[in-house]
Amino acid sequence: MTERAWRYIPGMVQKRLPILGWLPHYSLKWLQLDSFAGFTVGLTVVPQALAYAEVAGLPVQYGLYSSFMGCFVYFFLGTSRDVTLGPTAIMSLLVSFYALHQPAYAVLLTFLSGCIQLAMGILHLGFLLDFISYPVIKGFTSAASITIGFGQIKNLLGLHDIPQEFFLQVYYTFLRVGQTRLGDTVLGLVCMVLLLLLKAMRDQVPPLHQQMPPCIQLSHIIVWSIATGLTNLLGSFVSSYPVTGSFGRTAVNAQTGVCTPAGGLVTGLLVMLSLAYLTPLFYYIPKAALAAVIITAVAPLFDVKILWTVWRVKRLDLVPMCVTFLFCFWEVQYGILAGTLVSGMLLLYHVARPQIQQISEGPVLVLRPISGLHFPAVEALQKTVYNQALSASPPRSTILDCTHICNVDYTVMTGLRELLAEFQNHGASLVFAKLQAPVLFELLSAELKGFQHFSTLEEAEKYLSEE
Q1: What percentage of residues in the chain have a pLDDT greater than 70?
Q2: Which domains does the chain have, with CATH numbers?
Q3: Distances, alpha carbon 68 to alpha carbons 37, 65, 325, in Å
């Protein structure tokens, strides 16, 4: 191996193991802040994990089984100091559709999810997620918050034998509302009020710093306690169900002053201690209290203001968002698929029917495709040019301004060849202006009969005027 190749090895290893980038510079101050942040997040993780296991339809301890592996894996492979991996409300909802209340199915789902995520990472397939638009995501999360929240009403009211399917849940919940157990309802509502108060306190307390008195630091801990591929793969060996990054716990991690992913070690140890010594006590946790935790956690996912924002910015985006929102009440995964398909259709429509701007209305017509030119748009381009140039009497010579065209394919070449032939048959000219170098090379390689190009519109107009 050459000396130059040896110099690249440290950078390559550091890229694969991000821990090597910050561990050599680790300090005692960072250790203090990471320990505090990790402990705070751990106090948040434990009750949330128990509650999310209820959403997934699994025994509550499986929420903790799913909460510590991500902490240790992210310590070595994490690229962000703030992100925490663990159970989330929406992931738990998705698990409930496939696990069928069977822990073995959930663990198998975790293993398969990890394999797929690792394969996508190795093959660099992350770009596929770029085709899921923001309105689709908001429609999905809003519907999921309603589905998850309403699914806990039965526990809040102390009702039994309520189906899992959303519409049946709504029907049977209202049908059996007369069987409400007052004690469960009061306990759940009290827990919700306390959680909301803690959340309000969290928003009011000043940012944490090292000079704060111990009593203030303790108050921070009390307040904070509710207000991806390799993790899932390894997590399946410790009975985890699928996990992902948590927005809420990531925010807790960031605002408590975490410095490196080492904070996750403290969180993971706290979860493991809970599993080791507190598991027998989980049996006595009231479902109404877990329901209060879940409802309080998912309520912020429902974003009403996004409707008004999308309406003002681009009303057409409401279509995929509403489609996603409505289909998610049937099946969450179908909602995401339907919304993505609608977004894709809207995107393809703009590709197939690009806006063609008319620059000049004189004897020489100047047309400019605004959003590029791809093979689905060839027919639309031909129709526009024919209607505006060749249908006129007499036919008008035309300049095609190619400023925004950065790529052409064989179908486009064929369409342009047909257009050039039509102009020759009508005794008019079609010329090209402002071609980018790669596109010009491709057009010249195609050897189009009658093809002429100019670097500026002025040169093209002068040529056609003299002709």
Answers
A1: 89
A2: 3-227+236-301 (no CATH), 355-466 (3.30.750.24)
A3: 15, 7, 32
Q: Residue 214: how many CB atoms within 10 A of its CB?
A: 7
For 431, half-sphere exposure in the C-beta direction (CA atoms, 13 angstrom radius) is 25
* pLDDT for residue 364: 87
CB 267 within 8 A of CB 45: yes
Residues 146-160, mean pLDDT to the nearest whole number: 86
- Each residue's pLDDT tens digit, 219-231: 444 433 363 777 7
What mean pLDDT do residues 76-83 have? 74
3-state secondary structure the chain: CCHHHHHHHHHHHHHHCCHHHHHHHCCHHHHHHHHHHHHHHHHHHHHHHHHHHHHCCCCCHHHHHCCCHHHHHHHHHCCCCCCCEECCHHHHHHHHHHHCCCHHHHHHHHHHHHHHHHHHHHCCCHHHHHHCCHHHHHHHHHHHHHHHHHHCHHHHHCCCCCCCCHHHHHHHHHHCHHHCCHHHHHHHHHHHHHHHHHHHHHHHCCCCCCCCCHHHHHHHHHHHCCCCHHHHHHHHHHCCCCCEECHHHHHHHHHCCCCCCCHHHHHHHHHHHHHHHCHHHHHHCCHHHHHHHHHHHHHHHCCCHHHHHHHHHCHHHHHHHHHHHHHHCCCHHHHHHHHHHHHHHHHHHHHHCCCEEEEEECCEEEEEECCCCCHHHHHHHHHHHHHHHHCCCCCCEEEEECCCCCCCCHHHHHHHHHHHHHHHHCCCCEEEECCCHHHHHHHHHHCCCCCCEECCHHHHHHHHHHC
The residue to which tokens 């912020």 are assigned = 300
Mean pLDDT over 145-171 rounds to 85
Q: Are β-strands 364-369 and 397-401 bridged in parallel, bridged antiparallel, or unpaired?
A: parallel
* Amino acid identity, position 394: P
Calculate the alpha carbon distances from 150 to 163, 187, 292 in Å.
12, 17, 11
Q: Which residue has the tokens 């519907």?
A: 143
d(CA 145, CA 151): 10
When pLDDT is cut at 50, 70 and 90, the band that residue 148 belongs to is confident
> How far is 176 from 162, CA to CA, in rounded Å?
9
Q: Give how far the C-alpha of residue 360 lies from the chain's centroid of Cα atoms, to the nearest Å.
A: 43
Tell me the pLDDT tens digit for each residue of 196-206. Answer: 887 776 665 55
User: What's the average model confidence in pLDDT over 150-171?
Assistant: 85
**Given this model, what pLDDT does residue 128 score?**
81
